Amino acid sequence: MSLESKEQYDLSPKNSVEGNHQHSPLSNMHPELEKESSTDLKQFEASDQSTPYRRIHMEAQEKSNTNFKQFVIKKLRKSCQCSPAKAKNMIWGFLPALQWLPKYDLKKNILGDVMSGLIVGILLVPQSIAYSLLAGQEPIYGLYTSFFASIIYFLLGTSRHISVGIFGILCLMIGEVVDRELHKAGYDTADNSPSHLGMVSNGSTLLNQTSDWVCDRSCYAIAVGSTVTFMAGVYQVAMGFFQVGFVSVYLSDALLSGFVTGASFTILTSQAKYLLGLSLPRSNGVGSLITTWIHIFRNIHKTNLCDLITSLLCLLVLLPTKELNERFKSKLKAPIPTELIVVVAATLASHFGKLNEKYNTSIAGPIPTGFMPPKAPDWNLIPSLAVDAIAISIIGFAITVSLSEMFAKKHGYTVKANQEMYAIGFCNIIPSFFHCFTTSAALAKTLVKESTGCQTQLSGVVTALVLLLVLLVIAPLFYSLQKSVLGVITIVNLRGALRKFKDLPNMWKVSRMDTVIWFVTMLSSALISTEIGLLIGVCFSMFCVILRTQKPKTSLLGLVEESEIFESVSAYKNLQTKPGVKIFRFVAPLYYINKECFKSALYKKTLNPVLVKAARKKAAKRRITKETVILSGIQDEVSVQLSHDPLEFHTIVIDCSAIQFLDTAGIHTLKEVRRDYEAIGIQVLLAQCNPSVRDSLARGEYFKKEEENLLFYSVYEAMTFAEYQNQKGVCIPNGLSLSSD
């Protein structure tokens, strides 16, 4: 049976499909033909002899007609009900320590917790002092920050292993904000650490506009740091309350890795001046990394040889011992506290050698003992710091949540992401009243904590006790410690981030797109600024997601032998293709961005119905005849009968299994494709539509209710239906008319 001898078209304006996009082709058929088609379709569905299987039928679940107002009232009633049990659960949920501490197994856990807490505390002492310089603060404030964070996370945290405290990237971001505000306030930023807390330094003073007392550079710096920390904590608690932790999904592993590596270059650059003993203003804003290196090379002749020699000696000690710690960590019961040893040795050498007096080396200066009186953040600074706190809060909670989930999965327990956001939020809000700056989990210290036998959050209390001992007794002994030693400690701890370059070849093999995202984020974070680099990374990452859906993979499918599985004919050999049926797969959501890509790919892999129709119209002008067609005793005048070459196929099946959703543009595109193919006698069937796509098609009136059976649950079912229609020669409901005579 030749297809061209059986197809007939009514091109009268009244019934033309072109004239009305929404007009169903069913309405073009004579009622008797429509009835016949429906009968044949029912025969197909019920027949077991003509088809190898029975037509699949699935009954949809009844949707509840709950009124939105009733739903909200029900939820509010449930949440507002108060009972002793609910109050107890709420308190226990907010303070997880009340749940696990009474069940604490002293014999099993105490040794590991004490050992890990003690070692992490020893490591935190020099790092807290070193990272204070990075944050533009006095050394004492870094010790305060680590102390309060350890105590608060012990009470609120759900992860047994992560170490919460100062984190280099956040210290860098805080330092950039602090230096910007100091410059705006008119303070001299050439020296990041005045020699006396709360007192005049280098004659640079300013009357704080928010009070009547004189606040020096150090006082104003911690006011800025604690205020931005308070705002970051508020954002984190708000994200936990409104359960918007999904924001972190936009920070992919490649993006975070690139951001940390890029920020590490900025940290290294900011510490280089301490290694050389140079007193330079800290560069802020776009291109600060390049500007800083320009300043360093311009002043390289002013290098303090004593600081340079000290830096080289510390590097020669720290780098090999750090490598040994990592290489033999399975054999060592505890890592060698090299940083603490270097700090003690350098302090003794500086003190007894009188390096500051003889060679004018830059030293840490006086570090007071005890705690300073609590002080509220500077509320007048909030408008200028609110935006800066957003990026800081997102980075802080993203790193904390990801680390807590990673170690929980590794050790077989669960953490609550929202409670982690509460915990890290209050680790910033409460300490901001005690002269502290922003904290988060830190990978390096967490790894040390895990490897030294940590069992529960109690190890955080041991760490806090070590820091408390330093704050009350030992801190003043670090007066003569050279800043170059602290700079070396900071730089050596960047090794992990800088080693990411070794992973790039493997990342390129796995995903080129992720590698590009890594490079873009890393370069923008290093060369532009950390905040803008993070924003560029997020935007570029989202653009890459859109790009992947804008030009997705498309293919024609073939049937795997002796199965009902269809795969791409361009990817696999020996696939069977049924004559007269083309099966097309589109691997992406169909929406406004890629609708033209969908149409062009479909037309390219099958045929372009618009060109076919134009060719037929051109041929019709040369050959026009009149015929009388008698249908069920009724005479209709057909104005034009086209003669044309036969088409290679009569049905297109679109595999919708990879189409996650449709928007209005996608539905309109499917309507347009169906209409164009129907105009040349080819039916379009949709297969494997998920419930969301089916609902969108129904709401978008893609088909009438009686045409709903043209959506198939499998590609094989759609193909069999098309073959059955072709064999029976029935009038297909979506416009293709075949005669069985």
Written account of the structure:
Keywords: Cell membrane, Glycoprotein, Membrane, Phosphoprotein, Transmembrane, Transmembrane helix, Transport. This protein has 741 residues and is an alpha/beta fold. It folds into two domains: 419 residues, no CATH class; 159 residues, Transcription Regulator spoIIAA (2-Layer Sandwich). 55% of the residues lie in helices and 7% in strands. The protein is built from 28 helices and twelve strands. The strands form four sheets. A six-stranded mixed sheet has the order 6-5-7-10-11-12. Strand 5 and strand 6 form a beta hairpin. Helix 21 packs across helix 22 and helix 22 packs antiparallel against helix 23. The longest helix is centred in the middle third of the chain and has 30 residues. The termini are close together. The N terminus and C terminus are likely disordered.
Q: What's the layout of helices and strands?
A:
Layout: H1 3-6, H2 31-46, H3 68-80, H4 84-94, H5 97-100, H6 106-134, H7 139-156, E1 164-165, H8 168-185, E2 205-207, E3 214-216, H9 217-241, H10 253-276, H11 288-298, H12 305-327, H13 338-353, H14 355-359, H15 382-411, H16 417-429, E4 440-441, H17 443-451, H18 459-474, H19 483-492, H20 495-498, H21 504-510, H22 512-527, H23 530-550, E5 554-559, E6 566-568, E7 580-586, H24 595-605, H25 609-622, E8 627-631, E9 634-638, E10 649-655, H26 664-678, E11 683-687, H27 691-699, E12 711-712, H28 715-728
Parallel strand pairs: 7-10, 10-11, 11-12
Antiparallel strand pairs: 1-4, 2-3, 5-6, 5-7, 8-9
Helix pairs in contact: 6-7, 6-8, 6-17, 6-18, 6-19, 7-16, 7-18, 8-9, 8-15, 9-15, 9-16, 10-11, 10-19, 10-22, 10-23, 12-13, 12-19, 15-16, 21-22, 22-23
